[in-house]
Amino acid sequence: MRVRVYAGAVLFAWSAVVVGAQKVTTPEELDKVMKKVGPAMQATQKAVGAGAFADVKTQIATVRQGVLDSQNFWIEHKRDDALKFNKDALAKIDAFDQLVSAEKVDPAAAAASLKAVGAACRSCHQVYRATDADNNFILKPGSIGG
Fold it and tell me: Which CATH number do you get for residue 38?
């Protein structure tokens, strides 16, 4: 009986992850996902500064999901460097999340870890993102070919 309950719980958790993930394949879909990440990252920074770590957890989850959702785009377009940037960003996000999940959060360590997340994001932005006339991030023209 316990095995069935456990197997059912694992299956439910796995299906929730699959349902939550988006299959991002086009620049428009990537843009839509990233447009959620930017404000969530800004809210995370603000919440860290205020010491509002419950809000931090909510916002960084949105950032993580967006980065995770974008992973398929880089796989589809065969951009190994972008996939490496993506995986590095996810690792930094997970390290940050673990830090802010502690019973007693060190605000200075959290701020430093969040800076590392931002640096990981910038690595990809430097290669694949540009800004349009309205100063909005866009995929750099020609960066994925055809």
Answer: 1.20.120.10
